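Side project, low priority. Logging it here so it doesn't get lost.
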Amino acid sequence: MSSSVPCHSGRHTHPRLCSYTGNIEEEGLEAVTKIRKETKEGKVEFLFLDLSSLHSVRQFAQRFKATGLPLHVLVNNAGVMLVPERRTEDGFELQFGLNFLGHFLLTHLLLGTLKRSGRHGNHSRIVNMSSATHYGARLNLKDLQSRLCYSSHGAYSQSKLALVMFTYYLHEQLTAGGFPVSTSTVDPGMVDTELYQNLCSPAQTLKRPVAKLLFRTPAEGASTAIYAAVAAELEGVSGCYLYNGQQVASSELSYDEELQAQLWKQSCSLVGV
């Protein structure tokens, strides 16, 4: 099960049941149709989820838990990038609200199911999609919503840093409790997707030839997330940052345990858990 995961991820995991979620129903149903044509293994379905809305996240979690199905893999992949300053219906800065808080709440609400679905020797897995932009990010706990000074790049990189820190803190909590759930965060690299649609016109013009030479295709970008979700050699490996299928160090700031704890506490308060 995944949140707005590209069809490439769903296609290669060979699940008994893969739930593909997103906030544009037509695109979601098209993706499901494509997956069904390309593989005869397992079952795939589309479920609506708008991660910029806490109400939608709660509704989705309730619907999924009501099915009684197990949950073995959660890929938190939805996101927006470099958008003009906007607020979600809950009043959060859009990039922080959708990229981080929506996934934070979704993971929290489904954590019980993940714990029950995992086994020692066969952990459930949580995969959070981050970005290399987190290396230059700062986390301003006094202004997480970027109200004092908004920068589209700064807000995006902060949301991705928050995901890395969330991954590490959650790992510590799960390990301390002895739960069979692993966490990892993934840097997919520069991928040629619609995330770059908010670049200014001159930048869009420059991007096109560069993207053909240097950017990864969506399938290539999804490869590390797939690896994190299903690789046998990562069984029981948790609290790691992955790039190009390798464990690498994230930013120095991301390992600040006190900051991780403060972010966790504030996030719980913001989403009401």
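Brief comment: Residues 1-15 have pLDDT under 50 and may be disordered.
Revisit when time allows.
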